[in-house]
Design brief:
The protein has 4 helices and 4 strands. With about 100 residues, the chain is α+β, with helices and mostly antiparallel strands. It has a domain of about 70 residues. A hairpin with a 2-residue loop joins strand 3 and strand 4.
Length: about 100
């Protein structure tokens, strides 16, 4: 019985160790939509950013042409797109696609 308990304990420890070690490979901190909402909240509550945009005469619409999402957007929209795509997209065979973990 003692040997069975030792073997079972060793097995459970090994299983827990492997699970904890491999969990980051399969887990995400939060979804892209949540990341965009965090960015929007930070944008809306930052007086420093508002002052920066005003003092530097940043227009309400900015045009840029990154390969993932070119176009004209507000500064907040650009920040949200950046937060959504900062770690999520890769270029594969000439096409940008979302990373699948």
């Amino acid at each position: 019985m003692n040997a069975l308990t030792k073997n079972l304990g060793g097995f459970l420890f090994s299983a827990a160790f492997i699970t904890v070690t491999l969990a980051p490979i399969k887990c995400h901190g939060h979804a892209g939509v949540v990341h965009k909402q965090i960015t929007q909240s930070a944008f809306n509550s930052s007086t420093g950013l508002t002052v920066f945009l005003t003092e530097n005469s940043v227009p309400q619409s900015l045009t840029a042409s990154p390969p993932q999402c070119s176009g004209t957007r507000t500064p907040m929209d650009w920040l949200q797109q950046g937060s959504l795509m900062e770690d999520e997209f890769v270029k594969e065979n000439g096409t940008w696609k979302i990373v699948e973990f």
